[in-house]
Structure formats: C-alpha cells, structure tokens
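Section 5: illustrative case.
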C-alpha cells in the first residue's frame, strides 16, 4: 500500500475564492504573507489583486461613491505594496491598465526575495 503525500498547499478552489475578494479572505496583508499554504507566486498574485481592488476603492472615494472603509484604503494600499516589496516582487505603479486605477503590475515573479540583513 502506498502512502498518500500530504501537502499543506491551499486548495485550488479556496485560492480562486480568495482571488475574488482578497480582503475578505485575509484580515491583513501580513496575514496573507504568513499563510504557509501559499507559494510566493500565489502571494504576489493575491497582493496584486488586492492592490487593484484598493485602487478601485480609492477612485470611488474620489468620485464620492466610497463606502465607510474608504479612509483606510490608502493605508491598506501602502501595506499591500510593502508586502509586494518584501516578497521581492517589484511593482510598476506607473502602469495603469484602466486609465484611472494604477494597480501594482508585478514585473518580477521569478525574482528571489531579498535576503534579510
């Protein structure tokens, strides 16, 4: 009889659900980083989606369509981008795929994170 290999990877369905609403799936960017079930590439992908979602929230705030949590969106965006940087995924904040919301375009998924000093 063969033993089944157990992995601690996040199930695909759970990852796809998290991509739909990253803020709902993770309480904070730090919580996302701490999730050992996610690969580095998955973390960067989730952070990129979170960055985009926060950008939309900030635009809504500028257009007076924001909800109650919009005041903390800028701070949360700063934390998300700091986590992207911590993972070594350089974000190109100048790219603006929609013309209004920047969103972090991860330009180095295969780059290794910087070593801690």
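Designed sequence:
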């Amino acid at each position: 009889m063969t033993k089944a290999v157990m992995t601690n990877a996040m199930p695909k369905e759970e990852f796809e659900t998290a991509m739909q609403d990253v803020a709902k799936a993770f309480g904070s960017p730090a919580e996302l980083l701490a999730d050992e079930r996610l690969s580095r590439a998955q973390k960067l992908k989730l952070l990129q989606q979170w960055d985009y979602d926060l950008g939309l929230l900030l635009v809504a705030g500028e257009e007076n369509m924001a909800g109650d949590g919009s005041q903390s969106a800028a701070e949360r965006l700063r934390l998300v981008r700091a986590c992207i940087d911590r993972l070594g995924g350089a974000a190109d904040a100048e790219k603006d795929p929609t013309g209004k919301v920047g969103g972090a375009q991860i330009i180095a998924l295969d780059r290794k994170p910087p070593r801690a000093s």
